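Feature request, filed as a ticket because there's no other form

It would be nice if the structure record came with a short human-readable summary line next to the tokens. Right now we just get the raw output. Example of a typical job, pasted below so the devs can see what we mean:
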Amino acid sequence: METVPKNPDAAQTISWTVHPLVENWIRSVLLGLFLCLLFCFIYWGFQSIPIALLSSIFLIASLYKYFLPFHHQCEADRLVISTCCYRLRRPWAAFRSFYVDANGVLLSPFAKPTRLENFRGVYVRFGKHPPDEVVNFISRKIESESSP
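Raw output as currently delivered:
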């Protein structure tokens, strides 16, 4: 007996979670030690607990992409990246090119390289997920959207 999937788009969807804090524990321990030392120096320099707390809040908040898990979902018609703070949904038609590096893929709304890509593009991290599967999926979607 052959089972038919209930959702035909299920084969066209891949999802994974990236959490750098958990994935590289040595780097996380070193970061924690560095932050503790930095906060101690800030306290000793200003002799003020409120300033030390405020600076620690700002510094940790700026590192949210390292501390929070991000769930990536590549669907048939769009890319969804979510965390506890926000959810980003972009259709594949919004991307015209992509660039692969060792840690992920930069999806760009521009056809040619430009300096604005880092600000207007979306970076999809691989994490522990197989990079080939992600790159193949993204290349199929962007090529199919850009072809007439």
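Something like this underneath would help us a lot:
The chain has a mean pLDDT of 89.
The longest helix spans residues 25-46.
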